Amino acid sequence: MIANHAFSAPFLRLYALALLFFSANSILNVMIPIRIESLGASNSDIGFIMGAYMFTCMFFRPWAGKLIDKHGPVIVLRILLVVNGLALVLYPFSGLEGYFAARVMQGVCTAFFSMALQIGIIDALPEEQRSQGLSLYSLFTYMPTIIGPLIAIGIWDWGGMSGFTVVMITMALTTGVFGFRVPMPSIVRKREESSEQRTGLRGALSQIASHRPLVICSALMLIASVVFGAVTAFIPLYARQISYGHAGLYLMLQAFIIVVARFALRKRIPSDGHWHSRYVGAICSFGAVGALLLSLSQAFGPLVFYAAAVLIGIAQAMLYPTLTTYLTFVLPGASRNLFIGLFIATADLGVSMGGMAMGPIADIFSYSTMYAATAGLAAIAVCIALLNRRMKSRLQQAECE
Predict the structure, then answer these.
(1) pLDDT at 391
(2) Who has greater pLDDT, 162 or 222?
(3) Do 382 and 285 touch, CB atoms closer than 8 A?
(4) Any idea what DSSP says for residue 156?
(5) CB–CB of 290/312 below 8 Å?
(6) Other beta carbons less than 10 A from residue 208's beta carbon
(7) Domains: count for the chain
(8) Cα dihedral sign for 370, 372, 375, 380?
(9) Assigned domain for 4 exists
(10) Residue 389: other Cβ atoms inside 10 A
(11) How far apart are CA 370 and CA 143, in angstroms?
């Protein structure tokens, strides 16, 4: 019997594992663009390699949810920890092709890892605790990014590739050993197989259009994630064009805002199954204004540059747990995990497109133009949120019927 509270010991151990797992990424997100650029790659190449991580993650999310339901999270978790360790060790000994392969491997691992932990949290916690559990999980995944960017730049400036090698091997071993020793919460599943479950992934995909909340939330997450992905892929390079701009400080500030907002505002995230259009629209507006400030940073300087980090950090902190929590209430229980996997896949696709699609724009025009384009996309997300005010919760639908 597990404690059904988001702060209980079993869940704290899961959050700690998430922190370790994503620590390497906080360093790689800065190291990889700088390293690839030093090898003579273009922005399109950088965006492609950086985007490969989340594109792969997107592709495997739906299968991750289904396989975890079938085989359980423990076996899946241990296999992916081994594969993740191999990917981390591959980075220091590779060129461009090896970086791409390692990003793909990491994408597969992240798809299964995040789905295993989030499904465990959703199924084990009572409804009133879901938003806090998901928010705390997300918080711990971002905590490494507070210090990771500065560590990455320090490694690049002083440690070189030898320091990078030591750090990656150490992280691979630490995460693997800790992960094998962390027990997953034992969850008793009471859901019986239904015809909706038996339809499988193909059947679920054909049903997406009939679930309006899933379509709207996925569209919002996709658009907003383009902004987040463009920041991750190109801030390490764009910061060099800003007077007194520093990529490590920017990413550290944005991560700090994400962590503080997710912890301080975790109880403000709606956990009632209702759609709060103005609340979601306000979150998206933070991302739109933040992206606009980024586009103006080269002309107006570091104050505008770092203000963008604050606004985008708030948007990134609040949007994902808000939409995920809402969907846990309104999606059909029999195929909820699979649909949640599809929703998270749209976030992965958006982050991927933030690198892959925005890189050519930066090559043809400039980083400022690219971030202006993402600001326009985020403004569209604000409109989508505000124009869909009448989505009903599952409870409301049942009452109407």
Answers:
(1) 67
(2) 222
(3) yes
(4) I
(5) yes
(6) 14
(7) 1
(8) negative
(9) no
(10) 11
(11) 27
Whether 103 is covered by a domain: the verdict is: yes
pLDDT at 398: 41
- Domain hosting 221: range is 9-183+200-400
CATH number of residue 28's parent domain:
1.20.1250.20
Q: Is residue 1 part of a domain?
A: no
What is the H or E stretch that residue 373 is in?
A: helix 367-387
Contacts of 309 (CB under 8 A, 6+ apart): 250, 251, 253, 254, 257, 290
Stretch 111-132: mean pLDDT = 78
CA separation for the pair 61, 273 (Å, rounded): 23
Residues in the chain: 401
Cβ proximity of 134 and 262 under 8 Å: no
| Per-residue pLDDT at 106 | 92
What is the residue whose two structure tokens read 């971002």? 142
Structural contact between residues 21 and 84, judged by C-beta atoms closer than 8 angstroms: yes
Q: What is the mean pLDDT of residues 51-75?
A: 78
Which residue did the predictor score with more confidence, 189 or 291?
291
Directed axis angle between helix 9-38 and helix 127-142, to 10°?
40
Which residue intervals of 72-95 are DSSP H helices?
73-90
Instruction: Tell me how far apart the alpha carbons of residues 33 and 43 are, in angstroms, rounded to a whole number.
Output: 9
Q: Which of 273, 308, 279, 291 is nearest to 223 (CA)?
A: 291
For 21, 95, 103, 245, the CA distances from 35, given in Å and listed in that order, are: 22, 10, 14, 19
Calculate the CA 361 to chain-centre distance. 23
- Judge contact between 19 and 126, C-beta under 8 A: no
What's phi and psi for 272, nearest 5 deg? -120, 0
Predicted local confidence at residue 336, as pLDDT: 75
Q: How far lies 63's CA from each of 76, 299, 367, in Å?
A: 12, 45, 35
Identity at 60, one-letter amino acid code = F
Q: Could you give the 3-state DSSP secondary structure of residue 375? A: helix
Q: At what angle do helices 43-71 and 336-356 cross, to 10 degrees?
A: 170
User: Which candidate, 263, 254, 266, 237, places its Cα nearest to that of 31?
Assistant: 237
